[in-house]
Structures are given as C-alpha cells and as structure tokens.
UniProtKB/TrEMBL annotation, chain A:
Residues 2-227 form the ABC transporter domain. InterPro entries: AAA+_ATPase, ABC_transporter-like_ATP-bd, ABC_Transporter_VariousFunc, P-loop_NTPase. The lineage of its organism: Bacteria, Pseudomonadati, Bacteroidota, Cytophagia, Cytophagales. Gene3D superfamilies: P-loop containing nucleotide triphosphate hydrolases. PANTHER family: ABC TRANSPORTER ATP-BINDING PROTEIN ALBC-RELATED. The keyword Translocase does not apply. The keyword Nucleotide-binding applies. SMART domains: AAA. This is ABC transporter ATP-binding protein. It comes from Pseudochryseolinea flava.
TrEMBL record, chain B:
It comes from the Bacteria. One of its GO terms (cellular component) is plasma membrane. GO terms for molecular function: ABC-type transporter activity. It comes from Pseudochryseolinea flava. Keywords: Membrane, Transmembrane, Transmembrane helix. The chain crosses the membrane at residues 12-33, 45-67, 88-115, 121-143, 155-176, 196-216, 228-250. This is ABC transporter permease.
Length: 242, 255
C-alpha cells in the first residue's frame, strides 16, 4: 500500500531520516515508536507530502507521491499539534473541509457525535483548549472515512473518557481492515491498538515486525517491557560488534 | 481552485483592512480633486500615492497575510489538493482584493471627475505595481520561515525599489555625466518597476520637457507604440518572474 524506499531527509546539517525503507500494507496497524526527535513526525509528514524527502521515493498504491496529490483523498491525518485558521468556528471549519473533500461518499461523524462537538460548533478556534483542538483534529481525520489513517500522538492531551472513545473508534476502524499508522509514547495504548511495531532511532528503522514476534523474541508479556528488552539486546550486540 | 480563492477572500474581508485601505484611497483622491480643479495636476499628486503608498501597502499586507494564513495553508496541504493550486489560489485572492481596493478607491473619483487618458494610465500603473509588489511579497514570504524576517525582507524590497535604487541611479548618471547614457539608463530603469511606472506617467503628463535632453530621448522611446509595449512587457515580467520563483520554492518547501 505505502512503500517508503531509501528515503533521506536533511534539515540543514541535521540528518533526520537515514535511508528509511519501510513497507506498510493494508489491513495492518503500525505503531511508530521512538524517542523524541527520532524522526517519527518527519516520516509521517513525508508520507503526506508536507515534507519533501531529500532523496528516495515514497510510493502509494504503486504510484510515486512526488507529483501526485489525489492519493491524499485516501488518508485521514491527525496531526500532533493541530493548527487551524484561528478566526473560524468549529462548524465553519468542518463545513469548509466537507466542501474541499467533496469526493468522500460516506461521511462518518461518529467522533463529532462522541466528543459532543456539535454543542460547540459556534466556538472559534482560538478560544479552544488544547484538548478540544485535539478532538477537532480527530473528528476531521475520521470524517471522510478514508482507508488509511495516520494518527500522530492521538491520545496526548485528551481526558480519560475521550481517550476511551477515541481508542474504541480506532479499534473499530482497525477491524474494518484499514491501514493504521499510530505514533505514540503511551505503549499500553499501542499494545491494544496495533499489530506491528516500527521502532525508529536517530532517523533509522531499527525494528520492524509484528508485536507478537517481538514479545516472543524477548519473552515479555507487555509491549513496554518488550521494547526495553529489545533495546537492551541491541545495545549489547552493538557493543560486542564494536 | 475556486474554493480556495473563496475561503482566502472571505478571510481577507473579515480582517477589514482592505475596506479601510479602499476608504483611505477614496477619501484622499476625493480630497485632491477638491483641492485642485486641473485633473492633470490631481493625477500628478496621485502619482506620489501610487508610487510610494501602493507598493508599501501591497507588500506589507501580503506578507502579513501569508503568515496569518499559514495554518490554513498547512491544513490544505494535507488534503487532496495540488500545492500549486493552493499557492496560486492564495496569490489570486490577495492580488484581486488589493487591485479591487485600488480600482475602487482611485477609479471611482476619477470616473466622477472625468475620465482622461492620464487617469487611465494612472489606474493601470497602480494595478500593475500592486501585482508586482504582491509577487515580491510572496517571494519574501516563502524565502524564510520566520514572520519578522519575511516582513524585514519585504520592507527591504520596498526601500530598495522606492529609495535606494533611485539614489544609485542618480549617482550613476552624475558620475558618468560625460558619456552618452541614454540607452544605459533606459536599461537601468527597466530594472526597477517603480521607476518604469514613474517614467510612463511623467511622459503621459507631458512634463518630460523638464527632464531636458534625456527627457526628449525617453519621449521618443516611450511615446512610440514600441516603447509602450516594451515597458508594459517589462512590468509584466516583474509580476511573473518573482511569482514563479516563489511558486518553485513553495512547491518544494517543508511545512
């Protein structure tokens, strides 16, 4: 579905992505894990075309995204920090997005419903709290019922009840066979929501396999412990090789 | 594209700056017509507004607007829309609203107090200078990520074309006064859209005699149909070239 081939990205002297090779296939849900500044958001933004790779190619359904833009119709994106026109109301923003993505056949407003956003439709974006903003981002990502969902730290900043609503929604979409890419630092969430793990460290993919395999390899039951063990083993191997 | 233009337009109208700008132009043009009965003299006074105020307002407003709609641009880029369409839509919406403000603010009084050839060429110069400085502002805005820096670059463009370049030209003509400079200064004037507009207007107003021998040369050149086509073409290049450079940078920019 999405194939990332030898992608490099430099921001000035900073080498953020180093020869990233990654295949993401339909029906799977990927957890994107790595320390702060490891390049997770840059990778996500490259898939969306917001960041243009310095070299390498990203292929979506067999077509390079470099000159294409219609593929974004198939992606729902929830950014880490949602930035929206400040003097629009929630209602105007959602209407505008519906107007711009007219091709969507089925609209899915279950998130708007679930977060009770209809009640706040005439609130302006600049008056919203960080959490409410996050809810708007989630609502927009799911609204057009896209086959691919990219969620950048979806649960950060949400209250516990909203987190549960969102997680339920994500699970529902996962069972419908969508491709999910979720970046998060809350590993217990990822344990429930995802089937595969991609571990990124300093711009390189260090691990890419199913979570089941990871747990078996490390003989741990929890994802958090499994990742810690995996990193420990890697460091040990690295030090021996050196 | 139309949808993008519509939303940007809507956003510009909401800030009310454009309405204020239109009103300012309207009031000052009417005031000048009240003060002087000779329409040619009024056009002469308006020329200063066109050459100084219009570029300044266009370039500063456009740069600030670009940065204020950064969120909108970011949001649109994650949607199934071509980057170029977003950029061109932004450009057209801003350029159209500024041109309309100028056309209404200066055009209506001109129409009421009598349409003249000089009045029409003043309108033309004002609109094309607006377009030139909107293009330059977009270029300044995509060159950097920082709003303050971009406004700095935009102001630098304005200072350069309105003040610094003229100083340089004056020094150049003065220093090489012993040589035949007509053709060279003609070339140098083409490098500055504000100067180009000024020369076109001065020749229209029939005061080129004040410029002596050089004035006569310009009159011969710009007065001919070739001269008019040439200067208009150069002014259009001043709109198109910065616009395309900005478009190129924008289509590869990381957001």
């Amino acid at each position: 579905m999405i194939s990332i081939q030898k992608v490099n990205k430099n921001f000035g002297k900073l080498h953020v992505l180093k020869q990233v090779d990654l295949d993401l296939s339909m029906g799977r849900s990927y957890a994107l894990v790595g320390p702060n500044g490891s390049g997770k958001t840059t990778l996500i933004k490259s898939i969306l075309g917001l960041v243009v790779p310095s070299s390498g190619e990203i292929v979506f359904e067999g077509k390079s995204i470099a000159k294409d833009w219609m593929y974004r119709e198939k992606i729902g994106y929830m950014p880490q920090i949602g930035r929206y026109p400040e003097n629009m109301t929630i209602g105007q923003l959602i209407d505008m997005m519906k107007n711009i993505r007219k091709n969507a056949e089925v609209l899915d407003d279950s998130i708007i419903e679930g977060f009770k956003l209809y009640k706040m439709f005439d609130k302006r974006m600049h008056a919203l709290s960080g959490g409410t903003r996050q809810k708007v981002s989630a609502a927009l990502a799911f609204l057009f019922n896209p086959p691919v969902l990219i969620l950048d730290e979806p649960t950060a900043g949400l209250d516990p009840i909203s987190v549960e609503i969102l997680k339920e929604k994500i699970l529902e979409e996962k069972h419908r066979g969508k491709l999910l890419i979720i970046s998060s630092h809350i590993l217990s969430d990822l344990d429930e929501l995802t089937s595969d793990m991609v571990y990124i460290y300093e711009g390189q993919v260090h691990y890419n396999n199913t979570i089941q395999t990871l747990k078996e390899e490390t003989q741990e039951k929890k994802l958090g412990k499994a990742i810690a063990t995996m990193i420990g083993q890697k460091q040990l191997i690295d030090s021996v090789n050196r | 594209m139309n949808r993008i233009i519509k939303y940007v337009f809507y956003d510009i109208l909401r800030t009310r700056f454009i309405i204020f700008y239109t009103a300012l132009l309207l009031v000052s043009t009417f005031a000048m017509f009240q003060l002087d009965s000779d329409p040619n003299k009024v056009v002469m006074s308006l020329l200063n507004v066109v050459l100084m105020v219009v570029p300044l307002v266009s370039i500063v407003f456009t740069t600030i607007h670009f940065y204020n709609s950064y969120e909108f641009i970011e949001l649109m880029l994650a949607q199934p829309i071509n980057r170029r369409v977003i950029f061109i839509g932004e450009y057209l919406a801003v350029a159209m609203s500024l041109c309309m403000a100028f056309a209404v603010g200066v055009g209506i009084p001109l129409g009421i107090y009598g349409v003249s050839a000089t009045g029409m060429s003043l309108l033309f110069c004002g609109i094309i200078l607006t377009l030139v400085f909107v293009s330059l502002a977009f270029l300044a805005a995509v060159l950097t990520r920082d709003k303050a820096k971009a406004i700095g670059i935009a102001l630098l463009f304005w200072f350069y074309f309105s003040l610094i370049y003229d100083g340089f030209l004056l020094w150049f003509v003065y220093a090489f006064a012993d040589y035949p400079l007509e053709k060279i200064t003609l070339g140098l004037i083409s490098l500055n859209p504000v100067d180009l507009a000024r020369v076109i207007m001065l020749l229209q107003l029939d005061i080129s005699a004040l410029m002596g021998y050089t004035g006569a040369f310009y009159r011969q050149f710009f007065g001919s149909s070739f001269g008019i086509i040439f200067s208009t073409l150069i002014l259009f290049l001043w709109v198109i070239i910065p616009f395309f450079i900005a478009l190129r940078i924008f289509s590869k920019k990381d957001l």
